[in-house]
Structures are given as structure tokens and as C-alpha cells.
Design a protein that fits this description.
Largest sheet of chain B: 7 strands, mixed
Number of domains of chain B: 1
CATH topology of chain A: Immunoglobulin-like
CATH architecture of chain B: Sandwich
Oligomer: heterodimer
CATH superfamily of chain A: Immunoglobulins
Largest sheet of chain A: 6 strands, mixed
Order of helices and strands of chain B: EEEEEEEEEEE
Strand content of chain A: over 45%
CATH superfamily of chain B: Immunoglobulins
């Protein structure tokens, strides 16, 4: 069965610091990969997605993620975080044959001004 | 395009009561999902519909949860009777070739 693991549950950074959130999945077949963000009191929003092609994916608000197939990883990065990036971040995977979108447990990012 | 509509936004009930949530997906989206998001956790898939048929309900606690999508458009998720551990946000999502679109969710508090 497919599953998603996010390494960090709670990350605290100062503004302008660089961010990397880890995500690993377990599934042997073809997958599509996503990062979602959930700002306090708001619904899930798509940050970026990977379906195929260039494994380095750029998303909204300066975020990017790199798909490393050999490591089953899809880590999220941002060179310089802002206070407004404070939110919960979810990695998610769809296995191509099941079509089920499975989420990781989430990482809470707190950016101090 | 319009988003996924969910109602109500908030609901507070006592344990052992019943509750129903409604979702109206984006027009034309054949695939609809219900997720349960407990505070501090990632959304957990409860049920997946393709038109009005159930594709996957393996994570749905069928002794108390039920869902239907009779005309392949809007959907209802019901809990009867509710338990304290059902307190969560219930998210509906629909799928197009652009990807998933989530509704704002219904926050259920069981007291």
C-alpha cells in the first residue's frame, strides 16, 4: 500500500532562512507527487506538483521541489522564507494505478519575523 | 471555475447524535473524494466516488459512516452515531485534469 512520510513535524525558522521539508513515499510504481499548503483557518492549496519530465518542479510563492526517484523522495525547498509562509505543509502522492491521493502527516512551519 | 462547495462550515453535536455534511463538486468533475483531517494530522481518505459509484471505501468506518452520490453530482457524508474521536475537519475534493480542488471543509466538534 502506498504511504507518505514527512520527516519534520514542526519547523521554526527566522525570516530569510532557507527551508527544506523532507518527504518520502513508499510505492514501487508510477506516482504523481504534490505539495499542499494550509494557512491558518484556510483550505488546502496546491503549491506544486510533479507528473513527469524535469524532476525539479517550481511552484507558487518561490517554492520548488525535487523528485529523486531512486530515493523515493520529493523534498520541498525555498531559499528565503517569509513570515507569511507560516502554515502547515502536506506532501501527497497518487499512485497511478489506484488514483488515490494519500497525504503525509504534515509539517507545521513557523517563521519568526 | 467555481470551487468545491461544502456545508455547513461548522457543526457542534453531542456524542451519539447524527450529522450530515454536503458537498457540491466542480461541475463536470466525475471523481469526488471525502477526507477526514484530525487536528495535527494529514487528511485521511474516507471514500472515493467515480460518478455515482464507489471506487474505494476501504478506510470508511462503515458501522457509523455512510456516503452517497446519487446523481453523480453532489454528495452527502453522514455519521450516525457520532463519537468524540470523530471531531475533525471533513474535506471534499473533486478531480479534473488540472488536479484536485478542495472545499473549505466542515469542522465537526463532538462534545
Amino acid at each position: 500500500a502506498q504511504s507518505v512520510s514527512q520527516h519534520n513535524h514542526h519547523v521554526i525558522l527566522s525570516e530569510a532562512a532557507s527551508l527544506e521539508l523532507g518527504c518520502n513515499y513508499s510505492y514501487g510504481g508510477t506516482v504523481n507527487l504534490f505539495w499542499y499548503v494550509q494557512y491558518p483557518g484556510q483550505h488546502l492549496q496546491l503549491l506544486l506538483k510533479y507528473f513527469s519530465g524535469d524532476p525539479l518542479v517550481k511552484g507558487i510563492k518561490g517554492f520548488e521541489a525535487e523528485f529523486i526517484k531512486s530515493k523515493f523522495s520529493f523534498n520541498l525547498r525555498k531559499p528565503s522564507v517569509q513570515w507569511s509562509d507560516t502554515a502547515e505543509y502536506f506532501c501527497a502522492v497518487i499512485a497511478a494505478d489506484t488514483g488515490k491521493l494519500i497525504f503525509g502527516q504534515g509539517t507545521t512551519l513557523q517563521v519568526k519575523p | 471555475e467555481a470551487g468545491v462547495a461544502q456545508s455547513p462550515r461548522y457543526k457542534i453535536i453531542e456524542k451519539r447524535q447524527s450529522v450530515a455534511f454536503w458537498c457540491n463538486p466542480i461541475s463536470g468533475h466525475a471523481t469526488l473524494y471525502w477526507y477526514q483531517q484530525i487536528l495535527g494530522q494529514g487528511p485521511k481518505l474516507l471514500i472515493q466516488f467515480q460518478n455515482n459509484g464507489v471506487v474505494d471505501d476501504s478506510q470508511l468506518p462503515k458501522d457509523r459512516f455512510s456516503a452517497e452520490r446519487l446523481k453523480g453530482v453532489d454528495s452527502t457524508l453522514k455519521i450516525q452515531p457520532a463519537k468524540l474521536e470523530d471531531s475533525a475537519v471533513y474535506l471534499c475534493a473533486s478531480l479534473s485534469h488540472y488536479g484536485y480542488t478542495f472545499g473549505s471543509g466542515t469542522r465537526l466538534t463532538v462534545v
